[in-house]
Amino acid sequence: MVRLHVKRGDESQFLLEAACSARIAELAPLVARIYNGRLKVQRLCSEMQELAEHGVYLPLNMQGLTDEQIEELKLKDEWAEKCVPSGGSVFKKDEIGRRNGHAPNEKMQQVIRKTIEEAKALISKKQVQANVCLNLDMVKDALDQLRGAVMIVYPMGLPPHDPVRMELEDKEDLSGTHKGQGAPGREPLISHEEQKQMMLYYHKKQEELKKLEEDDDDSFLNAEWADSHALKRQFHGVKDIKWGPR
Hints:
Largest sheet: 2 strands, antiparallel
Oligomer: single chain
Structural class: mainly alpha
Shape: elongated
């Protein structure tokens, strides 16, 4: 048997034990699976830390919105009542606006945090210093520990759009995680704030349209939303300008 020292650049990643007769063609896929498995554990630990602090993931159409905007748009998180942590929740607002703020109680938070520490230790780069080899079974063990902790704290499960559940079901979205290679990702055409304004704007349009349909008259011709240039003027700060002789 031989020990392979897997590095990324000059940075140690893990040790791998292999037979002297093993060929590179056989080892390369194995190294890749272990390396990617370590990345998966790290991503899962990161999201589970957020889960412990701020509860489950909000639906995508509610993320980043203020409470007032959510109320104005009449949005509702249908998963909030289904995915309640064991022992009840404590409210801790997610300032980023990704999670619903209904975090597990302190006891359940400790279950998650302790499991995260143990999982990280299994696949840690410090195992190289300790001369401990890493294998797929150890990576799987780390993932199973994390999965078990989630099941204990959230026996009713997590929303299908929660990154923790997506990782555990191998449905994670990895788009934008490989910008270190090739051309950088394209920047969004509009800012997040502009996107929120557009959502509010078009929602108001729909509400006015419903009301006017109920009234069954032609007053919509004078409505602000009927002006195709209204949104553009709103973004440029030139709303309600009146023209006339001085």
